[in-house]
Write a structure and sequence with these properties.
With 386 residues, the protein is an alpha/beta fold. The chain has 13 helices and eleven strands. The chain is 33% helix and 18% strand.
Length: 386
Amino acid sequence: MVQAVREGLSRRAAARRFRVSPGQVAFWVKRAAGQRLDGVDFSNRPPGSRCSPQRTPAALEQRILRLRQRLRTRSVLGEYGADAIERALHERGQDRPARATINRILKRHGATDAAHRVRRPPPPPGWYLPEVAAGRAELDSFDLIEDLKIAGGPLVDVLTGTALHGRQVDAWPAPGIGTTEVLEYLLERWRGLGLPDYAQFDNDTRFQGTHRFADTIGRVSRLCFALAVVPVFAPPLEHGFQNGIENFNGLWQSKVWARWQHRNLAALQARSERYVAAHRRRTAARAEQAPRRRPLPARWRFQPHTSPRGHMVFLRRTDEHGAVHLLGHAWPVSIDWRHRLVRCEVDLSAGRIYFHALRRRAPDQQPRLRTVAYHCPDRPFPRVRE
């Protein structure tokens, strides 16, 4: 190519002949300027030395490695890291590089004993429910933001909700939200969007029911039973299970509550409704790809005082004896599964509780640990505010 240009061929013509760009022809012609072709370096290596002039001499690196090995076998203190090597070089009056340089030398030669953290891929969303993790079922999560104060107005609670796959969100600001209001907002959401397969809550009494008595099934769970929705209760004081709804809680507080000054509750509710509508428009494509929801039955009426019949899930962690605490009882699961996560599936219709092992490192392996008989007492539902 360079020879053709030197014989009179234009650079553009040479580029067409050798099927390269004119810029490449110009680059190599400039590289070979004033030199014989057999003496030109056509290796395309960057100019300059192959080794940095500031690199520690190889002899000093080997001395440091030998000193580390000697300290490892003979040091009384048993210390042979960068600090110990630096002290030994100083005591001998030898040239000693900086501590960071010694660390780089040890790392470059693989002479470090530090255990690096192994980063494993996270489990899929909803990994603790196999149907949700596989994308065949939808999960709605709900939570409460409490005691937001409007200047000159009441304390405000906010019930928030979001779908795991579809990302449809909701937020209902209101003063003093109790179980009755939670039921109204759940029905409002499910009338508009349809029924999910699972509904997840934390262990607030407004969701789960009172904790004073054993074998208590709250009104929220009874609503889910009546609509064939499986209620799921997240484990107390555990990170990760409520990430989706907690993230939306933070988003709502930063984009709605903290961003604007609200004159009264009505202004806050109007601002929240506009934000929820805009958020749903942005995630509309995601919602179309989510698992299908069932419509709420027409002319359906909630009767909370009927006997509970259905399926519910508790996510729990076993104690030091391998037992879990739910529904006011301690259930022995496995002495070999202490302080570990367990999915407890309560089948009220069949009178059984199934305990499955959960591991984030192996989310697709959830063996059954134990099955126990359970009978929920059929007693009148307490007419108290939860």
